[in-house]
Write a structure and sequence with these properties.
Layout (H helix, E strand, L loop, with lengths): L4 E5 L44 E13 L4 E12 L3 E7 L4 E8 L13 E4 L4 E10 L4 E11 L6 E8 L5 E8 L20 E9 L3 E4 L3 E8 L2 E6 L12 E4 L2 E6 L5 E6 L8 H18 L7 E7 L6 E2 L4 E5 L12 H19 L2 H17 L1 H7 L2 E2 L10 E7 L6 E5 L6 E2 L8 E5 L1 H14 L5 H16 L5 H7 L9 H20 L3 H14 L1 H5 L9 H16 L3 H16 L11 H8 L3 H13 L3 H11 L5 H13 L8 H9 L5 H10 L1 H7 L5 H11 L5 H13 L1 H4 L3 H32 L1
Parallel strand pairs: 1-22, 2-11, 17-18, 18-20
Antiparallel strand pairs: 1-25, 2-3, 3-8, 4-7, 5-8, 6-7, 9-10, 11-14, 12-15, 13-14, 16-17, 19-20, 21-24, 22-23
């Protein structure tokens, strides 16, 4: 036989990071004509990007948040490097009141005795200060500003966050989130990534609080009236969006890596016991990264802190990473194996940011490109898995392997005849392999006859490759379904999870289109075909992580499909839990499934809503919320969405997740979309355009659709608010996902229908 294969490289685009922006011409120091400041005077700069003739070198920042008045005051002395002679200094400021502005020379003497006025241009979030004396190119100057503002109500800038103690007391903290352009909400600054500078931070606070920033604490000075000033070491040079500071009353647990890096995990005092796994994971991951990449973490400490009000999963502020509580805290009595895996993944992601700073990232990318694209054939020859018994013949097999980015195909030659071949052994390379018809047939037969001839990684990667190629329109669905026909003999969890995951995603897509015959047959096929896998699952937390993840997925799917033994066991566990007033501990891996079954009647739904209100664990609250959103009662779903919008019982940070939970419910996906359209302006007030919240709301609702009528409705809505969303790339991403859903059904629905009928008959 002669096999041909095409290797499709995953999309790797825009690997070169550019730092270009518009700079005014030679008259850039002159007023910009039509751009008027808030006082009616001409503003001296017309571009959205700042001029490049003033460069910040070092920020000396003093910040004092008042957690009673919910305001903050501060001052910043910015050492600047002047590239061109100018009278104007233009920088960013948003929602800040500037009290004082002064320009100092290199000896910190005032350049002018006059009070310098500050021009504000809110549409570009910029301010400008005029110096009566020309700032000379090559000289050193300081810009000194005093400012103040209320702590932000949202999730950006310097904002307030709250939490409740077990006694019901509400406590306040102040935290920052500056990515991408919100440092300007906390201090006047040059808030673009290209303007990297050092930071010396001082924070004033009361006795009952602590202060944290990117660098270690250098000293604390008592300044009177019950106030203390924490002074931190000078930071490394970094962009403004990586600056961070927090004032709170949290407790921490700490440890030291083998290379002497102090790592600490912070959380609200009553959740301190949930920090220990995060410390263990962070220590091991930091040591792994340093050894694997041969790159030392450049700072002396790293703090990881769980913020009660936080919109994204986490943020990689250098030396002070911030997290949503569900992304950092782990409670062994409540958190499942999937929760533990999620915490590990998020910490691993953020620590990679800390260690692999930009110059090393670029060098690693270049190394990867070189290996994968240019030496890929040589690597590929060493990563062929072939039939273990090779006959002693001289037949030559030729493999035509084409990289999509190369114009000429390369040829791989085997010197012996083989019955089958599996490229990209153990999926070590980041690409997808497509075989010709004989190649797929040989691998399908191999899996059916002796699947252990391939490693579990190879089996999982074959399943992944096949269904990805189906989505790309390069492989027929029935061939991919035939490939996984062996799964009822599979004993390893990873291939099982891979195959079941694809079947479940197809079911959800078709179910939302209300295509009843295919939905019914696919459900019947999964329950019949995987019954042995379902029946052997225990309702416990036993086993390795992969065992526990499979149990969680399989039992959740079986109960969702109304499999009687699963429903009966879940109801039994739920009733026992309710009878104990929620005091007995359910197995963590199945607790969410148990709650979902319990939420399907009125009393169960009401009880879970009550428990949500009193729970102190965000992971547990997330499981309750998911169960509440699984109800088949549209009125309950509407009530839940309204509670999310009110923001009292359900925190605003959880509203995007709630909308997505309702949208993935077949009863709720139109309900969620109508809710988003009706409340769009209110949602934008809570979550700024471009924020993680808006992105998740749009993607979570729109990508549930799969018909041309739904696509037109989505496009019409966003056209009606074009002025708001014209620059949001997430709109394009979401509509493209709908188009992909439409294309998938167009290509594969009839194939799925026929294949299922043949198998079930």
């Amino acid at each position: 036989m002669v096999f041909s294969c095409k290797i499709f490289i995953n999309n790797i685009k825009k690997l070169i990071f550019t730092a270009q922006f518009c700079v005014q011409t030679s008259d850039s120091n002159s007023p910009a004509g039509d751009n008027l400041a808030t006082n009616g005077l001409p503003f001296p700069w017309s571009k959205v990007r700042l001029p490049n003739y003033i460069v910040p070198v070092h920020y000396h920042l003093l910040i004092h948040p008042n957690l009673t008045t919910l305001r903050f005051n501060g001052s910043v002395k910015i050492e600047i490097d002047v590239k061109n002679n100018t009278n104007w200094l233009v920088l960013h400021s948003k929602n800040l009141k500037i009290f004082t502005a002064t320009v100092l020379d290199e000896h910190e003497a005032h350049l002018s005795d006059k009070v310098l006025s500050v021009l504000e241009y809110p549409s570009h979030e910029q301010i400008a200060i005029f110096s009566p004396k020309i700032l000379t190119s090559g000289e050193k100057y300081f810009l000194y500003l005093e400012f103040g503002a209320p702590l932000s109500d949202g999730f950006y800038g310097f904002y307030k966050s709250t939490y409740k103690t077990k006694a019901g007391e509400t406590r306040v903290l102040a935290s920052t989130h500056f990515e991408p352009t919100s440092a300007r909400m906390a201090l006047p600054c040059f808030d673009e990534p290209i303007f990297k500078a050092n930071y010396t931070v001082r924070i004033r606070r009361g006795l009952s609080h602590i202060a944290l920033s990117n660098m270690p604490l250098e000293q604390t000075v008592e300044i009177g009236n019950g106030l203390f000033e924490d002074q931190f070491e000078v930071s490394v040079k970094m962009s403004s969006y990586l600056l961070a500071f927090i004032v709170c009353d949290f407790r921490s647990v700490s440890g030291m890596t083998a290379t002497g890096i102090n790592i600490s995990i912070y959380a609200v005092p009553e959740k301190w016991h949930q920090t220990h796994y995060a410390l263990e994971a962070a220590l091991r991951l930091m040591e792994f990264y340093e050894q694997y990449f041969n790159i030392l973490y450049p700072l002396p400490k790293l703090d990881l802190i769980a913020i009660p009000d936080f919109q994204s999963g986490a943020m990689e502020n250098w030396g002070l990473t911030t997290y949503m509580e569900t992304s950092l805290l782990y409670d062994p009595d409540i958190s499942s194996a999937s929760d533990k895996l999620w915490v590990t993944m998020v910490i691993g992601h953020e620590l990679a940011h800390q260690v692999l700073y930009i110059k090393h990232i670029l060098s690693l990318i270049c190394y990867y490109i070189k290996i994968s694209f240019f030496l890929g054939i040589l690597t590929g020859t060493r990563r062929l898995t072939t039939s273990p018994s090779l006959p002693n013949t001289c037949t030559v097999h030729t493999f035509y392997c084409t990289y999509t980015n190369l114009s000429n195909p390369d040829v791989l030659t085997l010197d012996e005849e083989v019955d089958w071949v599996k490229l990209n052994s153990d999926m070590n390379g980041y690409y997808i392999v497509h075989y010709d018809e004989e190649g797929w047939n040989a691998l399908t037969e191999l899996l059916s006859a002796n699947h252990t001839a391939l490693s579990f990684k190879d089996r999982a990667s074959l399943i992944h490759n096949a269904f990805q190629l189906v989505t790309a329109g390069r492989l027929s669905l029935n061939r991919a379904l035939d490939l996984i026909g062996y799964l009822n003999s599979e004993t390893h969890n990873v291939p099982l999870l891979q195959g079941l995951g694809y079947l479940q995603s197809f079911y959800k897509l078709i179910d939302k289109r209300n295509i009843t015959d295919v939905t019914h047959n696919l459900k019947t096929y999964i329950l019949q075909y995987f019954r042995d896998v379902i029946d052997k699952q225990s309702w416990s937390d036993d086993g390795m992580v992969s065992d526990r993840r499979l149990r969680e997925e399989v039992l959740s799917l079986a109960c969702d499909f109304d499999y009687p033994p699963c429903l009966e066991k879940a109801k039994q566990l739920y009733n026992s839990w309710v009878e104990s007033s929620g005091t007995i501990s359910l197995p963590t891996d199945v607790s969410e499934t148990v709650y979902m079954v319990g939420a399907q009647d009125d009393s169960g739904w009401a009880y879970l809503l009550e428990k949500y209100g009193v729970s102190m664990c965000e992971t547990e609250k997330s499981k309750f919320l998911s169960a509440l959103a699984s109800s088949k009662d549209s009125e309950k779903l509407s009530r839940l969405l309204q509670l999310g919008m009110d923001g009292t019982l359900i925190k605003p940070q959880n509203l995007p997740s709630l909308i997505y939970m309702v949208a993935r419910n077949p009863v709720g996906h139109f309900l969620a979309w109508d809710f988003v359209k009706k409340h769009w302006n209110e949602l934008v007030e809570k979550f700024p355009l471009g924020s993680f919240g808006i992105r998740n709301i749009i993607v979570g609702t729109v990508t549930q659709f799969s018909s041309t009528e739904e696509l037109r409705e989505v496009e019409d809505f966003f056209k009606s608010i074009t002025e708001q969303v014209s620059q949001l790339r997430v709109i394009q991403v979401a509509t493209e996902n709908v188009e992909k859903n439409i294309m998938w059904l167009s290509r594969n629905l009839e194939t799925m229908r026929t294949w299922l009928q043949q198998r079930l008959n």
